């Protein structure tokens, strides 16, 4: 009987401890590294919502989305903002890539981020 009570009390303690990390039924993984990476970025001072995405929508068309044309259009749109986009202390690049899909059209995941940046986190502009 004492063993059962001890197991129940330790299980209750564990349950209470775990419940601190559960929010609205969603498990949240807390990592100091992830928290640091999220807080390192400064909010982008630019508003990419107001850009004219016609350069991309007119040249980068499905169903094949030719990388040469899509990347040329992406660079034409992005290069005027290269100093902000290449600044790794801001979230400008992530924001622009997201806004291209939101306001420019729906493109395959990674088309601009992976194909045009070729794995680098900066834009090569002339």
TrEMBL record:
Every copy of the GPI-anchored protein LLG1-like domain together lies at 47-123
Signal peptide location in the record?
Answer: 1-28
- Keyword flag Signal: yes
Q: Does the keyword NADP apply?
A: no
Keywords on this record?
Answer: Signal
Xref: InterPro entries: LLG1-like, LORELEI-like
- Please state what the protein is called: GPI-anchored protein LLG1-like domain-containing protein
